[in-house]
Amino acid sequence: MRTLCSSTLIGEFFVIGFAGLVAMKDPDLSMATVWTVSGIAMFLCLVLCGLVTRPGGVALGWALQIALIASGFIVPTMYFLGAIFAALWWASVHYGRKVDEAKARFAARASSSTPDAA
């Protein structure tokens, strides 16, 4: 699960950075505000790469997905991109857990079929 979720988060890192560049064009937003919000979201993406397998990591990832969709109020394209990344996040969590379970079953089967060396 960690690999799939981390890949999604790294993709989001770059999308958030590019969305920040687009948001800078809005005359109602200061550059400091745009980069503070974008920087925090980008930092959270990187931190979540390490926390995704810990308790609450997936929930924080969902919070980030909601925030990414909500950023569509500033950059309308982010509604679409946020929805795409939310779907990718769901797939990463869902299929990542299935892969982890299959790996655990394979490891258990391999260790039980190997005779102990005496």
Secondary structure topology:
Layout (H helix, E strand, L loop, with lengths): L1 H22 L7 H21 L5 H14 L6 H37 L5
Structure description:
With 118 residues, this protein is mainly alpha-helical. The chain contains four helices and no strands. Helix 1 (2-23) packs antiparallel against helix 4, helix 2 packs antiparallel against helix 3 (57-70) and helix 3 packs antiparallel against helix 4 (77-113).
SSE class: mainly alpha
Radius of gyration over all CA atoms, rounded: 19 Å
Sum up the overall morphology in one term: elongated
Strand content: under 5%
Mean pLDDT across all amino acids: 92
N-to-C order of helices and strands: HHHH
The helix tally amounts to 4
State the separation between the terminal residues, measured CA to CA.
36 Å
Poorly predicted runs are: none
User: Helix coverage percent of residues?
Assistant: over 70%
What's the number of extended β-strand segments?
A: 0
- Major β-sheet profile: none
